[in-house]
Each structure stands twice: as structure tokens, then as C-alpha cells.
Amino acid sequence: MLKKRRSRRLRKSLKIFKRKRIDYSKYVKDFYLENGLAYISCNIEDYYDIIDKYSVEGYEWLNSQFAHFLETNAHYIPVEYPIVLEICGECLTDKQQAAVTETIADYYSLKLGDHQLALSDNLRKSIVLLFFGLLLAGAIWLLRSIYLIGSIKELILILFWFFTWEFANLAWLERSDLNAAKTEAGQLASIKVIFKETFIDIPADQAEVEQIIAEIIDEENMG
Questions:
Q1: Would you write out the chain's pLDDT as a tens digit for each of its 223 residues?
Q2: Is there a domain that residue 28 lies in?
Q3: How many structural domains are present in the chain?
Q4: Structural domain includes residue 8
Q5: pTM metric for this prediction
Q6: Structural domain of residue 46, as residue ranges?
Q7: Which of 84, 81, 71 is nearest to 111 (CA)?
Q8: Per the domain annotation, does 22 fall within a domain?
Q9: Cα torsion for 78, 84, 86, 91, to the nearest 10°?
Q10: Is 4 part of a structural domain of the chain?
Q11: How would you write the chain as a 3-class SS string?
């Protein structure tokens, strides 16, 4: 009896879990979004909470744990929202704040560059596949009236469909994913860093929001 009751309870729990739904957009809005901006806030105790301890001055690199924290939060933020990173703590000098701001921008600009290179590589491969696909299509058309051994015709058709499918996969499916990843990287590369002594949950007013967005746009134009 006990085993049967436990089994019924487990089946009931499974049904409840399957039916469970949340208002995802509401959670994202409540947790991150305010007045057209997305906020990620963090507390730090030391400069090396953000900067990798192995970095040398002038060539700073982002602490991998901090990057993971930032990217995990950014994952839930719609890409159309500019991100404001609020770094809270009294441990940074003006020089260190400047280094942190520059390091975050450089780190994600390099990530953006990786995605740009991936897109360029995707384009080159797509052009090659399209070229061979068209070449084989032309060969099929020219050889349609010429007697060929069945295995040769089959090989040409197989190659044609291979190049056609690979082109479609690269040019549409993979490229779409690469463009999405590039957009996300662009959002992080445009992040606005703000330093606070302590965290206060008071969003920026409309004038501050417009100033932050204008600064992001100006930096992009200069870039």
C-alpha cells in the first residue's frame, strides 16, 4: 500500500510539474528592466573580483568568474535593451575604475570580433558551397541527354544535394545563430559601467536614462 501511495504521489507531482507555467517576461521585467534600460548589479570586495589576478598593468583581463556572472545575467535580458552594470563597493580607486571600465569594453569587443570572424568564415564557406552546387546543377543539365553509367549519375546527384543542403544549413540555419550570437556580443560590448559605494535599488530617472543611451550611441558612432 505504501508503495502504491508513493507511486500515485509521484505521478501527481509529475503532472503538476508538466503543467507548471510562469510569466517569463514579467520575471525578466521585474528582475532586470526599468525605464528602457536593463540593470545588472553586483557587490565586490576587491579589484581582483573583476580583474584576473594574473593580469599585468595596461593589459588587464577579465576575471572568468565575474565574466560568467555577467554573461549568465545578460542571457535573460532581451538584446534590444542597453545594459547598465552597477558595480558596488568602496574598494576601487579612480585609476582602478578606469581600468575596469576599459577591460570590460575590450573583453567583449574581442568577443564581438570573434563572432564577426565566424560570420566572415561562414560567408566564405557558403559561397564555395553555392559555387559547387551551381556547377553540379549545370553539369546535370548538360549531361541530361548523354548516356552515363547509373552509378556516375547517382554520384553527381548525391554531390549536388550534399552541396545544396550544406549551403542551406550554413547560409540560413547556422548564419542565423551566428547573427544572434553577434548581436548578444554587441550588447555586452556596449555595456555602460557605473560605480557605486553601496547598492541602492533606485532606478535612473528619465533624464539619466536618455543620457546613458546617448553615451552608448556616441561610443558606437566613434567606434
A1: 556 666 777 778 778 878 888 787 887 888 889 888 999 999 999 999 999 999 999 999 999 999 999 999 999 999 999 999 999 998 999 999 999 999 999 999 999 999 999 999 999 999 999 999 899 888 777 776 666 555 677 787 888 889 899 998 898 889 999 999 999 999 999 999 999 988 887 767 777 777 877 777 766 555 5
A2: no
A3: 1
A4: no
A5: 0.82
A6: 35-222
A7: 71
A8: no
A9: 130
A10: no
A11: CHHHHHHHHHHHHHHHHHHCCCCHHHHHHHHHEECCEEEEEEECCCHHHCECCCCECCECCECHHHHHHHHHHHCCCCCCCCEEEEEECCCCCHHHHHHHHHHHHHHHHHHHHHHHHHHHHHHHHHHHHHHHHHHHHHHHHHCCCCCCCHHHHHHHHHHHHHHHHHHHHHHHHHHHHHHHHHHHHHHHHCCEEEEECCCCCCCCCHHHHHHHHHHHHHHHHHC
The type of residue at 176 is: S
How far is 46 from 39, CA to CA, in rounded Å? 21
